[in-house]
Amino acid sequence: MRLISVALALLLLLIQYPLWLGKGGWLRVGELEKEVAAAQEKNEGLRQRNAKLASEVNDLKDGTGAVEERARFELSMIKQNEIYVQILGKDQAKPATADAKP
To answer: N or C: the chain end with fewer CB closer than 10 Å?
Structure first.
């Protein structure tokens, strides 16, 4: 009788091994759930970035305000009959003028 009990206990342990430590076991499922959560978080960040870029594309296609803003700040362009004034801080060097003599 004791032999049968030991054999059944051993069989029970052998059946439980794949459930806990096997390829599709509970420990592996926990690891995969963490990976899925990280991937979903990354995807949400990418969705927000894509929405922002899509909004910017629509602004550039539909309105002239965004184009004008980019031209002003990135290309330093000004409108006709407009005066450009740049204020330098104390630690910034003065720009060289064309008529300055060394």
So the answer is: C
